[in-house]
Amino acid sequence: MIDRKIYRDFDKTLLFIALFIFTIGLLSIYSATQAKGLPLAESYVARQASWMAVGIILLAIVINISYQKFVDLSYPLYFINVVLLILVLAIGHVRGGAQRWFSLGGFAFQPSEFIKLNLILVIANYVGMKRASMGGLRDIVIPCILLFIPFALVILQPDLGTALILLPVFFSILFIGGAGSKYLIAMISLGILSLPFFWGLLREYQRQRLLVFLNPNIDPLGAGYTIIQSKIAVGSGGLLGKGWLAGTQNQLNFLPERHTDFIFSVVGEEWGLLGAIVLTFLYFIIVKKAFTIASLTTDIYGKAIAVGIGVMIALQVIINVGMTIGLMPVVGIPLPLVSYGGSSLITTLIAIGLLLNIGMRRSRF
């Protein structure tokens, strides 16, 4: 039996903003793909809408079950997700040199998207259980193992972008959980010092992406082509944009991956600087609400989850927008709720559901 009193703290604004951002995404996906001439039932818009329907159902389920139940299930879910990450390396679908997807009836399922949220839950579970003794070195060994396993599996796909998201999320939750600052700083410093070693582990196309970030013109028709076209698209939008369906870089097919990783370029070209600012401000509100929920929550589990989700969404937005305007290397991070892709959309909606859940129950634990 659901206690209806908890709905007094239901954050309608958070849900509305998420739905509004999705609507912007749907319009942008249509603009980016309508030239393909697919029947409506087979179009990218129809597929994204169907994923949205699934995501809304899951969001409704999530908000009606205490978030503590999901914390309790975090280790079994983590085990299942790790198994899926192993399986995708063995039998997954290869696309663009990466093996990240399972193909299911015309839809692609990406386990690495779900591990971001799963890691938040399992680390929140750990710091909650150890909240009275998180200051020692021994207390961060198990969390490091819990991070390393999916991190290594995601790197092997390879999916550098998702792997990079896992690290700040991990450290933010440990910090909130009371882990010793000197150990966290030491781990971060060690990671920075080991970057030359990881350079040798990167695939050739990943190295090329990092090099063209420094100078796209070293390979303008190859690895640098997308970022050059993206910057042209965003810059040509001006203050108010060219209008929906009127972006030349988009409609004339100059911009690759414009319905997925580079969809912000479509927004910038068609809606201009003003539209881009509005979109980023909406994300800012979501992230701010996540940290506000964390600050108002006395329960360490809820606090850790809310902070982890806030950091996850903020990083995805910063990295995606940064790479489309040339301020960050291209690492294949989708724009939450906007980029085409069911796995990312559903993961984000579940994350929004958890934020709503914690906000509704923040005074009950």
Task: Set down the secondary structure blueprint.
Layout: H1 12-33, H2 44-63, H3 67-72, H4 74-91, E1 93-95, E2 98-104, E3 107-109, H5 111-129, H6 141-156, H7 160-176, H8 181-193, H9 195-199, H10 204-214, H11 225-236, H12 248-251, H13 263-296, H14 300-324, H15 342-361
Antiparallel strand pairs: 1-2, 2-3
Helix pairs in contact: 1-2, 1-13, 2-15, 4-5, 4-6, 5-6, 5-7, 5-14, 5-15, 6-7, 7-14, 11-13, 13-14, 14-15
Could you characterize the architecture of this molecule?
- The protein has 365 residues and is mainly alpha-helical.
- The chain has one domain.
- The protein contains 15 helices and 3 strands.
- A 3-stranded antiparallel β-sheet has the order 1-2-3, covered by helices on one side.
- Helix 5 packs antiparallel against helix 14, helix 5 packs parallel to helix 15 and helix 7 runs antiparallel to helix 14.
- It is globular and about 60 Å long.
- The mean pLDDT is 86.
Summed up:
The protein is mainly alpha-helical.
Into which percent range does the helicity of residues fall?
Answer: 55-70%
Biggest sheet: strand arrangement:
1-2-3
Provide the structure class: mainly alpha
Tally of separate domains: 1
Please mark out the parts with pLDDT under 50 across 5 or more consecutive residues, or reply none. Answer: none
**Multimeric state of these chains?**
single chain
Q: Outline the biggest β-sheet.
A: 3 strands, antiparallel
The strand count comes to: 3
Tell me the Rg in angstroms.
20 Å
How would you sum up the global shape?
globular
Order of helices and strands: HHHHEEEHHHHHHHHHHH
Distance between the termini: 18 Å
